User: Fold this.
Amino acid sequence: MTWAAHDYQFMSRAIQLAKRGRYTCDPNPRVGCVITKGNQLIAEGWHAVSGEAHAEINALNQCDDATNSIVYITLEPCSHHGRTPPCIDALIKANVKEVIIAMLDPNPLVSGSGVKKLEESGITVKKGLLETEAIKLNPGFIKRMTVDMPHVRCKMAMSLDGRTALENGESQWISSEQARRDVHGLRAGSSAVLTTVDTIIKDDAVLNARDLAFEAKQPVRVIIDRQFKITNQAKLFSLSENVAGKVIVYTEIENDGRLNELENVDVVSIAKSDLWMLNIFSHLANEYEINDVMVEAGATFSGALIEAGLVDELVVYMASVLLGNTAQPLLKLNVLDKLSEAIKMEVVDVRQVGKDIRLTYNFKK
Assistant:
């Protein structure tokens, strides 16, 4: 497919619009839409809040007349009834001439059905413009739709020599205030923040997204607690729903009465197995529509997830301090006999955040 310069311009704009829904449209995908006539932009929209109008509808609502227009959309328009009516019907009713789509719907059950219905109505459809950029908008949604799993990001902070805390456990604060504020932005962009009960007991963290300069949904807070050691005295239970997301506790313990002690908390018992954490991530995707999970835990748990191949992305804040060789390591991993056995990653982003460096890696699978 050959694209004109203005095609790239308008789809790039649609992608930028889609990013505006990053903190508010979960669990729905981030989608942007631009409507043009005579190579001039006449309307635009994005999906802002789940349950409310999609990007195409918001753009059409800006139009006095979309007849014979060209519509640029980052994701194939929906053709099924969900929380809102299908966008396909609105596009057909508006008498648009052509629809250019960056990527098809990742849900294999409906992928291509929107395109087919548009074409059956006499509307020209083109696909694949800036597809790579569009895929980057929704890694969690795409993974949930294709393999029933969320995108998992592991966030950690370390010294320049790869340490997270002193030998005695003191760790607050290795990273700078700016880096800690940046973490709250990552939390806000996640469907859920996940940690272990040991981290809750040690740090009494509340795991919400706060001190933000923008409107955002609060992430679900997920606690991994195999033996159900958590108590209702933990600080994270003291926050009201308007400043913190709901809490889910996963345990291996079957309900013996103790699991009812926590109020306004979902306690889920998952049978013990070698695939316990994989089953938890699958449960989060299928039962709670969780697209993106950010893991904030210690060296042992994070290392185990990485070795199990359950982590897609690693974000490390590297502080300009040295803690020495007796300090605690970033990750606890199995001993390797050969360098060829090393876990391989690729750098996807490096940037300075305050006095720290934020490194983002994808795992090669």
The radius of gyration is 23 Å.
